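re the bet — no i am not wrong, look at it urself. input seq straight from the record:
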Amino acid sequence: MIFRPYYYFDKGCAAYLFGCGTLSRCAVVDPRAEDVDSYIAFAHTKNMRITHVIDTHVHADHLSGGPELARRVEAAYCLHESADFTGSFTPLKDGQDIELGNTHVKVLHTPGHSPESVCLVVTDLRRGTDPWFVLTGDTLFVGAVGRPDLPGRARENAALLYQSIHDKLLTLPEDLELYPGHFSGSVCGAGLSGKPMSTIGFERKWNPMLAKDEEAFIEALADVPPKPADMERILASNHGKPGLKEHV
């Protein structure tokens, strides 16, 4: 497998390019608008074709490069089927398998940070049949969890986030590597570590939010950072709705 993380320290963001080097197919997850050329160039150096561009959710803190990247390389632009996006996209379903040659991606619908949030469990069949890592988007971070308040209905979304983490992510293997969409410097969660990766087992043991029962989890998420700067304009663009004034 080819695996390339992209870390953006200005806003504590991460994007990922990965796929099957043998059959030359790859995906890009959570691309930033200003780095579209870099993803294309890297894939070219590895003789790989980008076939899928996936946003784990509609981002509120930075402009997505997903639609533009997909257009330029003639790839599928993918969001969860519940996403509020006015342009054309390939809808993802919970439990769906995306095949990138010997690399397989299982979609987990994990609402809470946003209604359409997904996590991606990745297996390299050349390495084995057990999954290797999970991309957790803004659902679970190293040392923290995603904030639930951006779409509104914060307490309701916090309960969904608790269920997504405990029913979907914490049932995954302990040794599964975990790569989130953000690390320290992001306002998409509180208390994020500066370390950009972890494992399911380490987070289960040491992430303070995962030791709380549901009621305490919801109460703890009442204390969130200020909303991302210029959030309304960013959301309007990422929803494909230039006239959108608020996230609903």
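see?? Helices lie at 36-45, 66-73, 154-169, 200-206, 214-220, 231-238. told u. also The first strand starts at residue 2 and ends at 8. so pay up
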